[in-house]
């Protein structure tokens, strides 16, 4: 397994070790002790989420204000443009965003620490995303930052997207931080 830092403080890009031969492949996608040692995190995951999205669906930018979640995200079918925005006011990368393409072929995983908004755009016809969370889903503390907020100016690979009502009605940066 290889871990690289990204442009956002604490966000890591993980390349799992893959064993491939004429039969197919094998990859260990998560092992608690190994991840705790390499990431320096001691919180086990308590919830696994799985979503399927059609091409053009944008989910995000989600976060839980009172009960923040760290996440380990991977795409198991198709391809997504995965994005995080740093909401931590004490962070050197506060208000910055980072995006990376996660695909079933590159098998990359994105470690998202607590205090970041997360979302993704589905790029293929069918896209499956799995992510582990360090805390339970808590609807009362969930918030959504607008995916197209001009203050953040995320450079999405396409402008035409399919949104849920909740994501369409997300809060602006000014509404969150003023």
From TrEMBL:
Which purpose does this protein serve, as stated in its record? Catalyzes the epimerization of the C3' and C5'positions of dTDP-6-deoxy-D-xylo-4-hexulose, forming dTDP-6-deoxy-L-lyxo-4-hexulose.
Its UniProt pathway annotation is: Carbohydrate biosynthesis; dTDP-L-rhamnose biosynthesis
| Reactions mediated catalytically | dTDP-4-dehydro-6-deoxy-alpha-D-glucose = dTDP-4-dehydro-beta-L-rhamnose
Enumerate the InterPro entries for this protein: RmlC-like, RmlC-like_jellyroll, RmlC_Cupin_sf
- The protein's organism comes out as Shewanella intestini
Task: Please state what the protein is called.
Answer: dTDP-4-dehydrorhamnose 3,5-epimerase
Quote the CDD domains the UniProt record gives: cupin_RmlC
Tell me which EC number(s) this protein carries.
Answer: 5.1.3.13
Q: What is the lineage of its organism?
A: Bacteria, Pseudomonadati, Pseudomonadota, Gammaproteobacteria, Alteromonadales
Top-level division of the source organism's lineage: Bacteria
Please report which protein family the annotation says this sequence is part of. Answer: Belongs to the dTDP-4-dehydrorhamnose 3,5-epimerase family.
What enzyme category does the UniProt record give?
Answer: isomerase
């Amino acid at each position: 397994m290889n871990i690289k830092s990204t442009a956002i403080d604490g966000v890591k890009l993980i390349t799992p070790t893959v064993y491939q031969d004429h039969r197919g492949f094998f990859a260990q996608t998560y092992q608690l002790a190994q991840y705790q040692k390499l990431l320096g995190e001691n919180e086990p995951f308590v919830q696994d989420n799985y979503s399927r999205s059609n091409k053009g669906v944008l989910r995000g930018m989600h976060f839980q204000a009172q009960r923040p979640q760290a996440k380990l995200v991977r795409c198991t079918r198709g391809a997504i443009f995965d994005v995080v925005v740093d909401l931590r006011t004490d962070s050197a990368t506060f208000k910055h965003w980072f995006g990376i393409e996660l695909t079933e072929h590159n098998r990359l995983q994105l470690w998202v620490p607590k205090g970041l908004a997360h979302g993704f755009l589905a790029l293929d016809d069918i896209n499956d995303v799995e992510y582990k969370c360090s805390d339970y889903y808590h609807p009362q503390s969930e918030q959504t930052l607008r995916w197209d907020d001009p203050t953040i100016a995320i450079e999405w690979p396409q402008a035409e997207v399919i949104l849920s009502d909740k994501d369409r009605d997300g809060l602006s940066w000014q509404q969150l931080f003023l």
